[in-house]
Write a structure and sequence with these properties.
Largest sheet: 3 strands, parallel
Bound molecules: glutamic acid
Oligomer: single chain
Strand content: 15-25%
Radius of gyration: 20 Å
Order of helices and strands: EHEHEHEHHEEEHEHEHEEHHHE
Number of domains: 2
CATH architecture of the largest domain: 3-Layer(aba) Sandwich
Strand order of the largest sheet: 1-2-3
Helix content: 25-40%
Number of helices: 11
Amino acid sequence: MSYIGRLAPSPTGAQHLGNARTFMVAWLACRSEKGKLLLRIEDLDTPRTKEGATEQLLEDLRWLGLDWDAACDASYTTQSDRESRYRQVLHDLQERELVYPCTCTRSEIDRVASAPHESALDGAIYPGTCAARSAADARSLDAEKTPYSWRFRMPCGLREFHDQRFGPQSLDAKLRLGDFIVARSYGVTAYQLAVVVDDHDAKINHVVRGSDLIYSTYRQLAIYEAMDWTPPNWLHLPLVVGPDGRRLAKRHGDTRLSTFREQGVAPESILGFLAQTLGITADKTPVRLSDLLAHVSGEPNWIQRIPLANCTLLGNQFP
Ligand code: GLU
């Protein structure tokens, strides 16, 4: 089966070095297999989606030298254009009682969550307060004008997948993650559902993304299973973190690609630095994307050589 991958940026702010590292690996992994690479703008996180951020991220990607293939007639797809398709799938899940309406607020969940906070892998575990509801209960909530989200019933038992770099993964996802939201109370589809519907519809068979989403993979697998769809192969990448070990953010200084561009840093310098952190090259000598492609195309094990530890950014790398 031919390789179909994707770049899935969120227009929630300027793209930084961490995003660039993920996109670069997604691009190299796909192009070295002569695959098709699609671009999807993940703009459903409305409160955090920034005006003009899509144009900015397209510019950032092009500046790095990344390209992608057209999807149908468009150069890329945008999640907010696909709400009716997500609703269709949600309706199917409702019909089969695989989701239920949940009126709990985040603070209520935090208060009731049975697991001590430290053992929650990825936010508080939903305590099941609304799990006895059936999908039809949404009608009375509508009549009362009570806001509710839709929560997916995570099946019991061990869930497993193979990560291309981290190897075999398994977790009792019901116990450790719990039921999760697939549609928000303000009527927007949640990331977990949208991403599965999008990847399935676009026939994506390879997903490359940050390891912060590794727990989401268990949730997405449960949706694939419920829909009887074939999941893609996953490659989660260790994150770029600041000297404090936390995910790259403003407090770590300005690592936005747009800032480097404005400062006159060459994209080849960024690529050279990232290639070294990924174990693709021995030093951070500036390099073109086409040279990196030629390099990895002749190195079948390059993905296995990506360091498993997070990549710590120490100060400005591009004087
Ligand atoms: N939009 C997500 C991000 O920018 C990526 C989601 C995914 O790859 O599944 O982090």
